[in-house]
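ENTRY TYPE: paired fold submission
RECORD: A
CONTENT: sequence, then structure tokens
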Amino acid sequence: MPTVNLATKYDAKLDERYRLQSRTERFCGNAYNWEGANAIKVWTLESAELNDYNSTASANRFGTPSEVDDEINTYTLQKKRSFSKVFDVTHVQDQMFVKKANAYLKQMWDERYVPEIDKYRFKAWADGAGQGALNSTQLDKDTVLKQILLAHAALDDAFVPSENRATFVRSDIAVETALATQLAHSDQWVDKAIIRGKIGELNGSPVISVPKSLFPTGLEFMVKYKGASADPMKLRMLRANDNAPGYAGTLMEGLARYDSFVLAAKADGIFCYFQSGMSPAVVSTSSGGAVTLTATGATIYYTTDGSNPKTSSTKATYSTTVSGLTTGQTVLAYSAKSGSINSPIYSVTVA
């Protein structure tokens, strides 16, 4: 019986996966240089209290001089991420020469490195954030705009510069932002955000939609000042070797050395708004030079010398009331809980 044999053809054009452009790169801090070192130490000088100038004093009209106090923090790179793959020359010959080393290296960077680095940065920024809120009610079009603007106001109150800020919004919350009730009749917002497919700007800050998988669990939005972090990309190596010993073909290798740190003195430049997934905020009571700290189910770390407890070498683990404090002395604290992002930094000053 006659048989019809239909042809099958392999097309020479590859079906490439979707690739993600970095959401974080533009707002990474790059003020520090790790060249020639695996770690850097950064000094922060403590500002002096102001005095009333005394023009009639016989000496020290500006006040009694004392040495400038300083704080030092160390930031050490940890991340070294690599891959190694081969295009065997006999396979390349028999697969219509569709495999190209340079194209594959770009694919690896776009598909693997970019989302991994973005995810790592968002977690590092959230863990080190100085400000934030936890609210179990999910934001919607009636509430999201107010909370974003309140977050910017919190940065304003901490004297964080208004320029070079970004508002990163989880993708589903970005939809609520685009549909925000308060913006429904704004021609400028509608034109820029919906017709042209952009999220738009709020408070002079670009609003950037972020895929859920890149945000820490429960994070709905983050407002970040660019200079609040140091985000070194010390090495980005992607190479193809056609003459690697032991291989008939092309050996492709990649190595990226990177990390991300929230700077101790600039932690207030990041505000994170969580629905869940954040360690409970620290609360306190104080009386007679003693402070009691509470964060249910979490471990509390604190300092009494004004340094950032998330980075300071002087931080202590809270176990009982902090006593022996003097009027005007400040306790800074945050809570940490396994599987959760660190809480914002809480501050209480002894009255």
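RECORD: B
CONTENT: sequence, then structure tokens
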Amino acid sequence: MFWNAPHKPMPAVFAIVSIFACQTALAASDILLGNIASTTNVTARDNCTNLVLGYTVYLEHVNRRGGVRGRKIKLVNKDDGVNPAKMIELTESLIADKDVIALVGFLNTPGIVEIGKRNLLVDNKIAMIAPIGAFNTTNFYPLRPGYNEEAEKLLHEALSTQKKRIGLVYFNQAFGPSVFKFAQETAKRIGANVVATAGFETAPDKIDANIAAAAETLSKANPDAVIMIIGGIGAYKFAKRFRETESGSAQLYTLSTADSFQFVKVAGLNNARGVVISQAMPYPKDNKLAVVREYQKLMKQYAPNQPPHFFSLEGFMGAKIAVEAIRRAGPNPTRAKVIAALNTMKNFDLGNFPVSYSAAQRTGSKRVDLTIIGKDGTLYR
């Protein structure tokens, strides 16, 4: 199975939203879903833009068919710049809006962790559906496995393919530090030999120099594999710079935040080919899954010029969970009723893809797949 790389870059989020510009005005009866995902941060914008697109496509489909009991459901996206403090501030503003019935698709691991620590969801009796990461605590309803599970999968893959000397590199923002720590601990537990580590800051005026320094640090250790715990463009730039070092032939691995098309575009085909990418969502062209077939159909109908993407599929699936919870919440849904509805969604099938939620256990998918960028830039699995 393979996935041909798209031939055009993803537009800015305002261009996506303009697909449905004539329907964007909010009505008094609209039900709102609050979303925080940065469409401007350099390391997050491509994935966040696709995430918002997935929600937008599915909600538009539902609304054109009459919404839920005649009420339209709209996504309210706010941009935190992947800043944890800003995410807290924006979350509080969404919670203050009585029309926001649930929170969905948040992307910013430290910010989400802080939301949990502050009990913002429990204290305000509001659910968070399908955050980007696995957060199995009260009022969190995950869809995907976490970045920790992805990192562990990559470490096992490196070990099983006889990689004797492994390097770890991470970016010092979002999920980077926590997943890096987990990867170090996991490597020790499973017997993977980590010979070098490096981290880098992501300030726009310093990121390129910091990446170069991190690449040189790892190169000096002569690794035969490097696992990149880096989001978005940082991963592409690191791969390009590392390939220029004396150890540049090492096998590269990275997380599902990487987009194969952008990888090839930024790093260059020669630097991107052979990179293994873990995937927390189904393959967007896997026609064996009913949810993927539905996603493909509605993307062609509502966003025909946009290529398939793991993050737009994730947004689409998150929207399906949210809409089902609102339906189950009855004719006068409230935040508390949505939580109660989610807690009844045991073995809910999104389309050959089950999730299971109850008051005691909230379990999304635990499946992590591996894909590889081929010699022509195509993503294979």
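NOTES ON RECORD B: The chain has two domains: 2-145+285-366, 147-279. The two ends are 6 Å apart (CA to CA).
STATUS: closed
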